[in-house]
Design the sequence.
């Protein structure tokens, strides 16, 4: 078979394998935060992302070890694979939008933003949003390993900066899939629908674009970045992770166990008698401190490869800025509508939107 045709359909095959693993491997049922739009019941989710990730990596390793597929196969067919994922993402997005009733907005708006809020299949065994994030995360990790293998085959060793970048991305993926239940309480699940933005975004954009720091430097020589500088880059990433993970965990415990202290921080709240808002800890630093964490993680990843002169590596943190600034504005509007006067009390107390003392 022509390598370009095989490359085009490679993501389709991998996505099918991940889906089968997700469906058949053991999982735990978790009650989420979002309610069913018709019954009002809290949605339940079957989660096994970490097990699917580990199993997928083991399959990749076995196939490479026995020479069924080259370890750097995903690098070799990267452009054809990207085209295949691009088309698959579009087809999925159209499939999950067009057959369903309009939201009242234009067709283009519905296709981009979606019509269904929280679609689930196979009696809830597969939740569309969790499946999309799982596909993107596992495919990203397989890309990281394959591109690293190509770099090793080319130079006979792996540049420390590239190794650090790969470790950060791997940690990012493993962390997300280890805390799946926490993310059921994030903006994506209670405020977004499934359309091109989320569907194509997870199937084509996430697993390819998040790789851009490695993709754009994998064929460059080791820049001999000093160890102390690599440590600084790792600390930037870890600082960002601490803010993002800490904020999400504090919110998760507040939603599920309102009186529980997190990292020794006892919840401080404001209320109007019906609704309650958390105003201390991570959520006392800024109203979207987790967004700052995401941007810092992206910055650490961009710096780690040791080629700041390569423009492409900066697209990763720039993307987070472009994504999260409008989301912050939309989320503030949504919260102002939901909480009314209480929201005004909150923003008077927590004055900064994302960056404490700056913005």
Sequence:
């Amino acid at each position: 078979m022509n390598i370009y045709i095989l490359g085009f359909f490679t993501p389709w095959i991998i996505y099918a394998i991940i889906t089968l693993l997700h469906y058949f491997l053991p999982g735990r049922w978790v009650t989420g935060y979002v309610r069913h739009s018709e019954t009002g019941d809290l949605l339940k989710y079957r989660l096994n992302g970490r097990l699917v990730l580990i199993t997928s990596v083991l399959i990749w390793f076995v196939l490479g070890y026995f020479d069924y597929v080259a370890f750097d196969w995903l690098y070799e067919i990267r452009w054809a694979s990207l085209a295949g994922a691009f088309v698959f993402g579009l087809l999925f997005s159209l499939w999950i939008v067009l057959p369903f009733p309009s939201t009242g907005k234009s067709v283009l708006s519905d296709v981009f933003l979606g019509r269904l809020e929280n679609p689930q299949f196979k009696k809830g065994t597969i939740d569309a949003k969790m499946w999309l994030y799982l596909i993107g995360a596992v495919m990203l990790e397989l890309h990281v390993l394959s591109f690293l293998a190509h770099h090793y085959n080319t130079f006979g060793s792996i540049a420390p900066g590239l190794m650090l970048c790969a470790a950060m991305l791997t940690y990012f993926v493993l962390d997300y899939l280890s805390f799946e239940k926490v993310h059921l309480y994030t903006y994506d699940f209670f405020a977004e629908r499934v359309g091109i933005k989320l569907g194509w975004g997870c199937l084509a954009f996430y697993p390819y674009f998040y790789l851009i720091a490695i993709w754009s430097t994998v064929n460059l020589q080791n820049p001999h970045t000093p160890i102390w500088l690599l440590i600084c880059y790792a600390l930037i990433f870890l600082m960002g992770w601490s803010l993002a993970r800490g904020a999400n965990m504090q919110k998760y415990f507040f939603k599920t166990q309102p009186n529980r202290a997190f990292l020794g921080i006892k919840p401080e709240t404001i209320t109007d008698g019906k609704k309650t808002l958390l105003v201390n800890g991570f959520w006392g630093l800024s109203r979207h401190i987790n967004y700052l964490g995401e941007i810092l993680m992206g910055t650490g990843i961009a710096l780690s490869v040791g080629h700041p002169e390569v423009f492409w590596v900066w697209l990763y943190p720039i993307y987070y800025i472009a994504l999260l600034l409008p989301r912050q504005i939309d989320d503030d509007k949504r919260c102002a509508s939901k909480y009314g006067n209480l929201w005004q009390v909150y923003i008077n107390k927590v004055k900064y939107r994302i960056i404490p003392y700056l913005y």
About this structure: The chain has two domains: 1-220, 223-359. The CA atoms of residues 33 and 78 lie 38 Å apart. The chain has a mean pLDDT of 91. DSSP finds 16 helices and six strands in the chain.
